[in-house]
Predict the 3D structure of the following.
Amino acid sequence: DQQVKQNSPSLSVQEGRISILNCDYTNSMFDYFLWYKKYPAEGPTFLISISSIKDKNEDGRFTVFLNKSAKHLSLHIVPSQPGDSAVYFCAAENYGGSQGNLIFGKGTKLSVKP
Amino acid sequence: NAGVTQTPKFRVLKTGQSMTLLCAQDMNHEYMYWYRQDPGMGLRLIHYSVGEGTTAKGEVPDGYNVSRLKKQNFLLGLESAAPSQTSVYFCASSTSGTSSYEQYFGPGTRLTVT
């Protein structure tokens, strides 16, 4: 049973517009959430994270929103750039569980068109 | 700094053959991890280590063994490869087991078992 779900396999956005990537989770014990970006033939790279005690975290063009009651988080990229085209993975951790054990979603492939 | 490196980048094995994947990090990280990524799937944790000489099972440990004889190296072994182990393998490291410390990933090893 998937604990972290990214229901949109792909998303296409025009350059300069907002990209919104969504992630849902089922385990209420998750206390930390992360977004990773992955280019082809490379390993994932950390993008942004949020603790369960917050509802928003912002870093430049990237903002992550957390809605604990809905068990939902989203990543906003504004403005989107062609270099943002990549696969984005949502991940969650239950620190009370296995140390450092991240549960990843299946990913969403973002394409930003010039 | 090279960060996290993986050897080899590609490998083709026949069913029943054995091999070892090497992961090395030069960031003096305590924690190291091995993940696998299958098509259309997120990353799944195979084994991890919280320090030199220690190892622990992750989500999908069957068919794999690991060793952490040196702090900077984490080896993943397949004793008798099976087609189900065809995957891309990623190694990662972090300063701590909590996700408030991001995991740094290597570029991956693409393994095909025929």
Summary: Chain A touches chain B at residues 4, 6, 9, 32, 34, 36, 41-46, 49, 51, 89, 91, 93, 95, 98-107 (CB under 8 Å). DSSP finds no helices and eleven strands in chain A.
